[in-house]
Amino acid sequence: QVQVVESGGGLVQAGGSLRLSCAASGRTFSRYDLGWFRQAPGKEREFVAAISWSGGNTYYADSAKGRFTITRDNAKNTAYLQMNSLKPEDTALYYCAVRGEIAVLTAMKYDYWGQGTQVTVSS
Questions:
Q1: Are strands 92-98 and 68-73 parallel, antiparallel or unpaired?
Q2: Using an 8 Å Cβ cutoff, are 48 and 61 in contact?
Q3: What is the pLDDT of residues 15-72, one digit of tens each?
Q4: In sequence order, which residues have a C-beta less than 8 Å from that of residue 22 and are 6 or more positions away?
Q5: Which residues contact 101 (CB under 8 A, 6 or more apart)?
Q6: Closest Cα to residue 119, out of 21, 3, 4?
Q7: Are strands 117-122 and 78-83 parallel, antiparallel or unpaired?
Q8: DSSP letter string over the chain?
Q9: Average of per-residue pLDDT across 77-86
Q10: 100 to each of 10, 17, 27, 83, 122, how far by Cα in Å?
């Protein structure tokens, strides 16, 4: 089992930055890929970014490319999502998820999810 807890959300003006953190418990954290997703009110949850177990490979949604950076520190069982040049359309509840099995980095199936952290970007 992996417990996942997100933090770092908040209210920021358009053009600003936030860094989200994802703290995970469990010995398997460093073995599997990790992803960030988001869900805006009235919309379906969407993929934002993913990082391989080693941190050596990353994958981004088009909306995140060039603005967001996903990283991880396996020694601390923590991952991060640095978000720059934020836009009002980035407003959403952001979730961190950990995969529980080996898969290609672009796969969307994740097994362990946090409760989310709210990001609100004002115009």
A1: unpaired
A2: yes
A3: 999 999 999 998 778 889 999 999 999 999 999 999 999 999 999 999 999 999 999 9
A4: 4, 5, 6, 34, 36, 78, 79, 80, 81, 96, 114
A5: 32, 111
A6: 21
A7: unpaired
A8: ---EEEE--EEEETT--EEEEEEE-STTGGGS-EEEEEE-TTS--EEEEEE-TTSS-EEE-TTTTTTEEEEEEGGGTEEEEEE-S--GGG-EEEEEEE-SS---TT----SEE---EEEEEE-
A9: 97
A10: 29, 30, 11, 26, 36
Residue 87 near residue 73 (C-beta atoms within 8 A): no
- Written as six digits, the tokens of 97 are 């998820």
User: Structure tokens of 102?
Assistant: 């080996």
Task: Tell me the average pLDDT of the chain.
Answer: 95
Question: What's residue 101's pLDDT?
Answer: 86
